[in-house]
Amino acid sequence: MLLHLFFLIFVGWQVFEYNGSTIVGMVGKNCFAIASDRRLGVNLQTVATDFQRIYKFHDKLLVGLSGLGTDAQTLYQRLVFRHKLYQLREERDMKPETFANLVSAVLYEKRFGPYFCQPVIAGLGDDDKPFICTMDSTWSSYFMYIGQNLELAKDCVVAGSASESLYGACEAFFKPDMEPDELFEVVSQALLASVDRDCLSGRGGHIYIVTPDDTKEKILKGRMD
């Protein structure tokens, strides 16, 4: 166990940035936005410019997975399996809060060989109230015991290699109770401003704007150098 913790502390953080990634979730007035960059790299080498990091589970629930690309795809497949079992058993879609606890439990199951992913969960709960949260997969095996591994937020959450610059951009642009169009502009400006300051992410953006009535998907063009 001590050897595992040593690996996570001194080596694990580099693995989270190996492929590069940037994800942000932000709430508005009865709506939310989740956005990611589109670059997949191997350190500073760009491999693809259309990599998918945001996954849709149902009309009111989306999840972004930052970190190691292969682990993100494996984790997504396991979450799809668990969510479909829930739909078959309960005959309804999973609420965002319930899904967040499911993700936490799946990460806890792999605590001795963790997925190098940091999920961003965004959805509309009861009365179409927006819900966003993230969690740290590295320490979820510990915080699971005390029920504090979920990082809930009322404004925005971020993940990925550009997190530091993204925090500042979101705090500067965010306003409460934004309408969908204004929320799209704010998320777009925050995402593009942050990835321009991170050499491990970028190549445009992929944005979802979700309201109680519909879901809009948009692609942003950004710097390609």
From TrEMBL:
<keyword id="KW-0647">Proteasome</keyword>
<keyword id="KW-0963">Cytoplasm</keyword>
<dbReference type="InterPro" id="IPR016050">
    <property type="entry name" value="Proteasome_bsu_CS"/>
</dbReference>
<dbReference type="InterPro" id="IPR001353">
    <property type="entry name" value="Proteasome_sua/b"/>
</dbReference>
<comment type="function">
    <text>Component of the proteasome, a multicatalytic proteinase complex which is characterized by its ability to cleave peptides with Arg, Phe, Tyr, Leu, and Glu adjacent to the leaving group at neutral or slightly basic pH. The proteasome has an ATP-dependent proteolytic activity.</text>
</comment>
<dbReference type="Pfam" id="PF00227">
    <property type="entry name" value="Proteasome"/>
</dbReference>
<keyword id="KW-0732">Signal</keyword>
<protein>
    <recommendedName>
        <fullName>Proteasome subunit beta</fullName>
    </recommendedName>
</protein>
<comment type="subunit">
    <text>Component of the 20S core complex of the 26S proteasome. The 26S proteasome is composed of a core protease (CP), known as the 20S proteasome, capped at one or both ends by the 19S regulatory particle (RP/PA700). The 20S proteasome core is composed of 28 subunits that are arranged in four stacked rings, resulting in a barrel-shaped structure. The two end rings are each formed by seven alpha subunits, and the two central rings are each formed by seven beta subunits. The catalytic chamber with the active sites is on the inside of the barrel.</text>
</comment>
<keyword id="KW-0539">Nucleus</keyword>
<dbReference type="GO" id="GO:0019774">
    <property type="term" value="C:proteasome core complex, beta-subunit complex"/>
</dbReference>
<comment type="subunit">
    <text>Component of the proteasome complex.</text>
</comment>
<feature type="signal peptide">
    <location>
        <begin position="1"/>
        <end position="17"/>
    </location>
</feature>
<dbReference type="InterPro" id="IPR023333">
    <property type="entry name" value="Proteasome_suB-type"/>
</dbReference>
<dbReference type="InterPro" id="IPR033811">
    <property type="entry name" value="Proteasome_beta_3"/>
</dbReference>
<dbReference type="GO" id="GO:0005737">
    <property type="term" value="C:cytoplasm"/>
</dbReference>
<comment type="similarity">
    <text>Belongs to the peptidase T1B family.</text>
</comment>
<dbReference type="GO" id="GO:0043161">
    <property type="term" value="P:proteasome-mediated ubiquitin-dependent protein catabolic process"/>
</dbReference>
<comment type="function">
    <text>Non-catalytic component of the proteasome, a multicatalytic proteinase complex which is characterized by its ability to cleave peptides with Arg, Phe, Tyr, Leu, and Glu adjacent to the leaving group at neutral or slightly basic pH. The proteasome has an ATP-dependent proteolytic activity.</text>
</comment>
<dbReference type="GO" id="GO:0005634">
    <property type="term" value="C:nucleus"/>
</dbReference>
<dbReference type="InterPro" id="IPR029055">
    <property type="entry name" value="Ntn_hydrolases_N"/>
</dbReference>
